[in-house]
Design goal:
Rossmann fold, 13 helices, 2 domains, alpha/beta, 307 residues, 6-stranded mixed sheet, binds 2'-monophosphoadenosine-5'-diphosphate
């Protein structure tokens, strides 16, 4: 199997994959996609379950996405994962979009059904499962702060928190306007009676240290959905000085076991986790959608950690 396939390969899939011991019938579309660990995780699951199919990486550029998605049925695909920057395009391209994905506003999992494409989103539910696995608590019981709430990942996470009916949701984005937009979209979810004292249940907050520090005293879980921390030289997205020991800190970044934020959080005694478990559970949920059976979570976890 090649490291990366292209649109041209997809146009002639049988020829492009001739000689493969097992048919490649699943994959991840992205740009860039070379770093994706999904093949290791999902191929381990396919093998463990005795499913005669393989999962690959497809490097598909934005202008190629629609054609690539439409080629999936004739190429014999079961489905695909979709990552940056195609999640909105995937929602537009799918013939039927699951309600949860529609509410989140993005699709990361496609299922081929005859000639049709069905769209799902397992990022939000994957985060929910990850929070439960890492911290033993449910989003709905928490006051959550989302950093980078205006970015692609942040919007999906904020929407999932809203769908879960979390106690309080604080949206933070370097460009405040984007956090305000998201707050306006999610406002209908926070009209209910569950009020934490006099505080608003939903707020968009400027990225200013004193304001963030004040909000953190009313927060249980902080989620970093910015790209800050991907490079080892990046600073912690929140300074140690405003973090507290009673916080739960989840960094969606998984390029290091201890990302700069995880390190800062652990230094002050807070419980913290990187984003590997979110990647794991979005994959677990995609597998379960494709095959309608329980995924081998432990095997997938092991494959992901050693990838
Ligand atoms: P996307 O395409 O998902 O928006 P992105 O451009 O990498 O991806 O940005 C993701 C998020 O990280 C955004 O919320 C971005 O903030 P802006 O909307 O203000 O650009 C945020 N982000 C990136 N680097 C950051 C940094 N150093 N500090 C704070 N936020 C940052």
């Amino acid at each position: 199997m090649k490291d990366l396939y292209t649109l041209e390969d997809l146009r002639h899939w049988e020829t492009a994959t001739a000689g493969e011991p097992l048919p490649i019938r699943l994959g991840v579309f992205g740009d860039p996609v070379a770093h994706s660990r999904s093949p290791q995780m999902l191929n381990a699951a396919l093998e463990a379950c005795g499913i005669p199919a393989r999962y690959c990486r497809l490097h598909i550029r934005p202008e190629e996405f629609a054609e690539a998605a439409r080629l999936l049925p004739q190429a014999g695909f079961i489905g695909a994962n979709v990552t940056v920057p195609h999640k909105i395009a995937a929602m537009n391209e799918a013939d039927v979009v699951d309600e949860n994905a529609r509410k989140i506003g993005a699709v990361n999992t496609l299922v081929v059904e005859g000639e049709r494409l069905l769209g799902f989103n397992t990022d939000g539910p994957g985060l929910m499962r990850a929070i439960r696995a890492e911290f033993g608590v449910d989003l709905r019981d928490l006051r959550v702060m989302v950093l980078g709430a205006g970015g692609g990942a942040g919007r999906a996470i904020a929407a999932q928190c809203a769908l879960e009916g979390c106690e309080r949701l604080v949206l933070v984005n370097r460009t405040l306007e984007k956090a305000r937009e998201v707050a306006a979209e999610l406002a209908p979810y926070f009209k209910g009676p569950r009020v934490y004292g006099p505080l608003h249940r939903l707020e968009a907050v400027p990225w200013e240290e004193t304001k963030l520090a004040a909000q953190l005293t009313q927060t249980d879980l902080v989620i970093n959905a910015t790209s800050c921390g991907m490079k080892p030289t990046d600073p912690s997205v929140l300074p140690e000085s405003i973090l507290q020991a009673n916080l739960l800190v989840f960094d969606t970044i998984y390029t290091a076991r201890r990302t700069p934020l995880v390190e800062a959080a652990q230094t002050v005694g807070a419980r913290a986790a990187n984003g590997l478990s979110m990647l794991l559970y979005q994959g677990v949920l995609a597998f379960e959608i494709w095959f309608n059976r329980t995924a081998p979570v432990e095997i997938m976890k092991k494959a992901l950690s050693s990838a």
